[in-house]
Write a structure and sequence with these properties.
The chain is mainly α. The protein has 5 helices and no strands. Helix 1 packs antiparallel against helix 3 and helix 4 packs antiparallel against helix 5.
Length: about 130
C-alpha cells in the first residue's frame, strides 16, 4: 500500500502530465507551416520552432518534471499501483484541462469514459 506522500507524488505526476498535454498540443499548432531544405533542414527548422516557442517550452519542461518525479517515486512505490494511477489520472486531467481550454472533448461519451476510468482506478487502488 502506498503512503500518503507517495500517492500525492503520483497524483502530482498525473497533474503535470495531463495538464501539460493540451498546452503542448495548442503550442505546436503552427508546426505544419515550418519548412526547411531537405530532411536535416526540416528537422532543424522544427527544433528551432519548438525550442524558441515559450508556449511550447514551458509545458514541455513541466511535463518532463513530471517524468522525473515519476522516476523518483517509482523507487519506493509498487509498480502495479503507480503506472495505472498515473496514466489513468493523467487521462482524466488531460480531458479536464482540454475542456477548460475550450477543446471539444467528445461530450457525454468522454464523461462516461472518465467515470469508468475513475471506477477502474478505484478498483485497482482497493485491490493493492
Amino acid at each position: 500500500m502506498a503512503t500518503a506522500g507517495q500517492a500525492a507524488a503520483l497524483a502530482m505526476v498525473a497533474v503535470l502530465w495531463g495538464g501539460s498535454s493540451p498546452f503542448l498540443r495548442a503550442a505546436a499548432a503552427g508546426m505544419d507551416e515550418v519548412r526547411g531544405r531537405g530532411r536535416l533542414g526540416q528537422l532543424l527548422a522544427e527544433l528551432r520552432f519548438l525550442c524558441l516557442n515559450y508556449k511550447y517550452l514551458v509545458p514541455f519542461l513541466l511535463n518532463q518534471g513530471g517524468s522525473l518525479l515519476f522516476y523518483l517515486t517509482l523507487a519506493s512505490t509498487d509498480l502495479s499501483l503507480a503506472v495505472p494511477l498515473c496514466n489513468s489520472l493523467a487521462l482524466v486531467v488531460t480531458l479536464g484541462t482540454g475542456k477548460i481550454l475550450g477543446e471539444d472533448i467528445g461530450g457525454k461519451r468522454a464523461v462516461a469514459g472518465m467515470l469508468l476510468t475513475l471506477l477502474g482506478l478505484s478498483l485497482c487502488v482497493a485491490a493493492s
